[in-house]
Amino acid sequence: MLNGIKMHDEKISVTDLVKAATCPMQLYLAKSADRGFTEPVSYTVAKLVSYHLGEPLFTDEIWEELEAILPGNDDARRILEQMIAACSKVTWRHADQYEVPVFSKKYGIYGRVDRFFDDSFSIIRSGAAPAHGVYFSDRLKAVCYSICLEEMYGKPFYGRIEYLGSGTIRSVVVQPQDIRTFLLALRLAEKAVKGEIPKVIRGHQCLQCRFAGTCSAIEKPKSLFSRMMSKT
H-helix or E-strand containing 172? Predict the structure, then answer.
């Protein structure tokens, strides 16, 4: 699917590649920031629920496991109950494996698939699905994993984004436009990782960026990614 592209020596995580696609300045600043990552409560709940998908979802059983991770967290209990109510209305496949490492030597990227099957994979999201399709960042991440798995196993894989907050499953089949988007994002990520100061992509993503208060770059014209994201 991806013939004729040179090998890449860099090791870039899929998460960083998606950051670069959203705004390369975000990735550039994150690489120089000394701050640990705190996993959101909703994501912790979603990950635990995902291990039970494909079997009956019992709130008390999963809560007992969750309390070992988040003891006495009332928000976690509320989120769990809402998530199970949404997911119980849907038929789920039982995964063959969980948290499967994937990589592409060809492109120098790596990541970890939430749920793995013999023909596909799933990415877990704790929130609700958009009205149509999937979010830009979720699609790009699915494209990256598809590329890695095809290289690893020598056959195509398709992805699913599983929005547990609304009990919604959306499939992602890689299209030629997705490959072009991936290659552009990869170039942006490589430059940011090497320390090249990138351009800023202004948009709604700035509202949730932890560097929004310190990023003083000059306003730039809307990029390909900002235009694509505005359509999601």
Answer: strand 168-172
Instruction: Specify whether the CB–CB gap between 162 and 138 falls below 8 A.
Output: no
Q: Using CB atoms within 10 A of its CB, is residue 21 exposed (0-12), middle (13-18) or buried (19+)?
A: buried
Query: What is the pTM (predicted TM-score) of this model?
Result: 0.83
Alpha-carbon gap, residue 152 to 180, rounded angstroms: 21
133 token code pair: 């399709």
**Long-range pairs of 115-119 with CB within 8 A, sequence gap ≥ 24:** 115/50, 115/53, 115/162, 117/93, 119/157, 119/158
DSSP 230: T
**What is 99-134 written as a DSSP string?**
EEEEEETTTTEEEEEEEE-SSEEEEEESSPPPSSS-
Please report the beta strands in 43-119, taking only residues with DSSP state E, as ranges in sequence order.
97-104, 109-116
C-alpha distances out from residue 5 to 13, 111, 183, Å: 19, 20, 10
What would the pLDDT profile of 174-218 be if each residue is shown by its tens digit? 999 999 999 999 999 998 888 777 777 777 777 777 777 777 543
Q: Where are the domains of the chain?
A: 41-87
How do residues 55-87 score in pLDDT, each as one tens digit? 999 999 999 999 999 998 999 999 999 999 999
Nearest to 159 by CA among 183, 140, 136: 140
Whole-number Å distance between alpha carbons of 202 and 28: 15
Instruction: Specify the pairing of strand 12-13 against strand 109-116.
Output: parallel
